[in-house]
Request: fold
Amino acid sequence: MGFYVNFSDQELLEELRLGNRVAFTELFNRYWKKLLAISYTYTKDHSSAEEIVQEVFIGLWNRKDQLNIKALEPYLATAVKFSVFKSIHQQKRREELAMLNYQTELIALDEEKIHAKFLQEYIDGLVEQLPEKCRLVFKYSRNDGLTIPEIAAEMDIAEKTVEAHLTKALKTIKRDLNNSGTFLIALSLLIK
Reply:
C-alpha cells in the first residue's frame, strides 16, 4: 500500500482507470477525512456524512473508465456537495410524503369514528326497544361490564335468568342488524 503514497493524484487516477484497487484505496485514504468534514458541515449528522462520502467514492469507482478529471480534490469536494444537496432534497421529499400519508390516515380515522358512532347509536336504539329487564341486563353487561353473577346480585334474580335475558337481547339485536345489513360491522362491537 505504501508504494502509491508518493504518487500524484493524476498518476493514481491513471491506475484507477486500469482498475487498480490499491490506487483507489490510496485515493480514499488521502481524501476521505476532508470530504467527511465537508459533508458533516452541511448534514450535521455523522452517519449521513459518512454515507455520502462512501457514495461519492463508490461513484468514482463505478465511473473509473469514463473519468476525465483535471483536479481531483475540487472534483471530489463538488461531488460531495452535490450529494449532500441531493440527500437533503430526498429527505424533504420523504417528509412531505410522510406528512401527506399521515393526513390521509387522520381522515380515514375520522371516517371510522363517524361510522362507529353511527353504528353505536343504531345499536343503542335497538337496545331501547328491548323489554325492560332484558334491556337492563344487556346494559349492565355491555355498558357497565358486569359479570352474570354480579348482574344477578344487582337485580336480585337467578343467574340463569340473567343468561336468558342476555341471550334474548343478543339474538334480538343480531336479528335486527341482519335485517338492516349491518350485522358484520356490528358483530365486532357486540362481542367486545
